[in-house]
Design a protein that fits this description.
Elements (H helix, E strand, L loop, with lengths): L2 H20 L19 E6 L2 E6 L2 E6 L10 H10 L6 E6 L2 E4 L4 E4 L15 H7 L9 E3 L5 H4 L15 E5 H7 L2 H6 L2 H14 L7 E3 L4 E3 L2 E5 L8 E7 L2 E7 L7 H5 L11 H18 L2 E4 L7 E7 L2 E6 L7
Parallel strand pairs: 6-7, 7-8, 8-9, 13-14
Antiparallel strand pairs: 1-2, 2-5, 3-4, 5-6, 10-11, 11-12, 12-13, 14-15, 15-16
Bound molecules: zinc ion (ZN).
């Protein structure tokens, strides 16, 4: 090796050492910070030419100190949870309003738990609408399935204003008749009193402006109201059809933690007002959906609440539709 070439080697080695010291990707890496929160929860899918967006209003944590099913013991519920690989000491209740873009109208079905519920992990419809790029002022029609607070309380903002100021509000006529009847309120059990009061708070100032609709009617082109009463007297599901495709937005045909009522269709949640009728409706509808292989979306089915129902002996099995990155 010549003197010159030895010097070149030393210079080269020194340059390489300096480069290593300066590189930002040194071998000893710091741990990446954990995100600690989930992605915004909305999910889009197509039904014919309509674009639908399921929007999560949140998940309410429920401690299982008592049975969430009024005609089953806690241990029976826990056995189903254990078989489903779920914790047996707690549950999460999901809430899913749906936005339907028909191409000419922007329609919202149900409105979530409202701003008063945010400390319990729900009331997130406005945040997730924003994340989905949907401005509440652009909603043309709000369709309500029934009057329980988790479906109507999102109609008003924290200061009492209308959350969807330019929307026509459509409600089931039978539901309106029951929850606005002072006589029914005076005869009703304690468990229903909060719904009577909340109905007054939400709808009282706009009673004349609300559209009351009948079952079997097409409310918006392609969206038809279907009688699924039992959970409440006017409980309504909505069949959305475009071209040859359809989805049934069932609302609370199964409620609470919905999978429990697929396993045991005779089980009743606290809100199942007419228990016998709720069970009859559930069985009749699910037999039909299983036969027709119709896509269903459930307000209380875990996110994104979309799938198919199959018969499983005398009960049912919910088969979730897989995430589809194509819309
Ligand atoms: Zn509900």
């Amino acid at each position: 090796m010549t003197e010159l070439s030895r010097r070149n080697v030393f210079v080269g080695a020194a340059t390489a050492a300096a480069a290593t010291a300066l590189t930002p990707f040194a071998p000893a890496r710091a741990a990446a910070p954990q995100a600690g929160k989930q992605a915004p929860s909305f999910y889009r899918y197509k039904v014919g030419s309509y674009e639908l967006t399921v929007i999560l209003d949140g998940v309410r944590p429920v401690k299982l100190d008592n049975s969430p099913i009024r005609n089953a013991k806690l241990e029976e519920v826990q056995a189903v949870l254990r078989a489903s690989h779920l914790p047996t000491d707690k549950l999460g209740f999901y809430f899913h309003p749906t936005v339907i873009n028909t191409g000419s109208k922007l329609v919202l079905i149900d409105t979530g738990n409202g701003p008063g519920s945010r400390q319990t992990g729900t009331g997130q419809l406005p945040d997730n609408l924003a994340a989905a790029g949907i401005d509440p002022k652009t909603i043309d029609v709000v369709i309500i399935s029934h009057f329980h607070g988790d479906h109507i309380s999102g109609l008003r903002t924290a200061d009492g204003a209308l959350a969807f100021p330019n929307a026509e509000i459509m409600v089931p006529a039978k539901e309106w008749a029951y929850w606005s009847d002072e006589g029914a309120a005076s005869r009703a059990p304690q468990g229903q009193q909060a719904t009577f009061q909340n109905t007054k708070r939400i709808f009282g100032p706009i009673a004349d402006k609300v559209t009351k609709y009948e079952w079997g009617k097409e409310l918006v082109p392609g969206i038809t109201a279907q009688d699924t009463n039992g959970h409440t007297p006017g409980h309504t599901s909505h069949l959305v059809s475009s071209g040859s495709a359809s989805v049934l937005i069932q609302a609370d045909v199964t409620a609470g933690f919905a999978p429990l009522q697929f396993h045991n269709p005779d089980w009743l949640v606290g809100g199942d007002q007419d228990g016998a009728q709720a069970v009859a409706t559930r069985r009749k509808l699910y037999d039909q959906l299983a036969t027709d292989r119709l896509l269903v979306s459930g307000y209380h089915i875990p996110f994104p609440s979309l799938g198919y129902i199959e018969k499983a002996g005398t009960a049912y099995r919910f088969v979730p539709a897989p995430w589809n990155p194509a819309i």
